[in-house]
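tokens incoming
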């Protein structure tokens, strides 16, 4: 059964599992510190064996997903049968419904069976990202564009994040759909993640000028990086991102990084660009539950069924 645990038990249970960085207590607590959430750790044990675990951020008695760069720390043993997975998921969902006023989870790409959430009246959002984990060459257009840069003197650098790389990215975020308040929170979050050694800046310079900088989350356990932030460039530097991504792929290969999450494929232009690097499209899900929405939906379904029943009776009377 599911039980609440503290962070010490959590650390003990995940120690041998080699899970992604967002399962790490220091990482979870850094997010909690910035967004002022309470952390609830849960563990499902059977016969002294951990079969599932989850760490959730709670605010105003709701489970929330404070930042949009990583996934919810929710793990199920790969040894579970379908029946066991469904039962364990259902029991967790029942806890959500009894204990909290709502829940939003961003599920990892490896959680692809979302039937328990569908059956429990969660709202399901399909999302996509591109994963690069092979040595396949990019699309010919990438090679063609790179050949045009021979005289542009771009320099690729891997650096610690600093005021320049942070500013250029957060300024770009403020020009998009992100509120100033959220961007300010992300600035604090970058500071916290930098403290635990989880960030690098992959930057492109032209002479001494910073053209673009990709702030990257480094996951040492998984030999993986997440390209979480990238600023736009001017039309004069339209191939800078191509050079940057190509350089990142080469650097990762040379430094033992086996997987790159390009973090998002949900906009047409962004998706098209990332696909050129011969990366694999992956689906993930954001699942949301709100009691009022569920009640309205169930009432609507009941009314529809009643109307259909009345129509059927009238038709054959």
């Amino acid at each position: 059964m599911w039980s609440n645990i503290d962070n010490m038990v959590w650390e003990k249970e995940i120690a041998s599992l080699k899970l992604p960085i967002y399962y790490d207590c220091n990482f979870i607590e850094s997010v909690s510190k910035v967004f002022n959430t309470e952390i609830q750790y849960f563990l499902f044990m059977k016969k002294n064996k951990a079969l599932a675990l989850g760490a959730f951020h709670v605010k105003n008695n709701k489970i929330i997903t404070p930042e949009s760069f990583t996934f919810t720390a929710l793990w199920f043993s790969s040894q579970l049968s379908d029946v066991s997975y469904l039962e364990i998921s259902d029991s967790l969902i029942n806890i959500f419904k009894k204990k909290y006023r709502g829940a939003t989870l961003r599920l990892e790409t490896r959680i692809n069976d979302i039937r328990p959430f569908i059956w429990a009246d969660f709202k399901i959002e399909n999302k996509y990202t591109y994963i690069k984990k092979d040595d396949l060459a990019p699309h010919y257009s990438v090679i063609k564009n790179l050949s045009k840069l021979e005289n542009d003197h771009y320099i690729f650098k891997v650096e610690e994040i600093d005021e320049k790389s942070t500013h250029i990215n957060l300024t770009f975020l403020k020009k998009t759909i992100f509120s100033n308040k959220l961007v300010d929170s992300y600035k604090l979050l970058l500071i916290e993640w930098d403290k635990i050694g989880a960030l690098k800046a992959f930057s492109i310079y032209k002479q001494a000028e910073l053209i673009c900088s990709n702030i990257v989350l480094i996951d040492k356990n998984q030999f993986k990086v997440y390209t979480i932030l990238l600023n736009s460039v001017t039309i004069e530097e339209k191939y800078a991102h191509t050079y940057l991504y190509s350089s990142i792929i080469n650097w990762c290969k040379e430094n033992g990084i086996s997987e790159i999450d390009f973090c998002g494929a949900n906009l047409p232009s962004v998706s098209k660009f990332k696909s050129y690097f011969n990366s694999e499209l992956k689906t993930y899900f954001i699942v949301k539950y709100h009691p009022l929405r569920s009640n309205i939906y169930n009432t609507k379904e009941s009314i529809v069924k009643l109307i259909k029943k009345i129509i059927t009776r009238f038709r054959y009377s």
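note: The chain has a mean pLDDT of 91.
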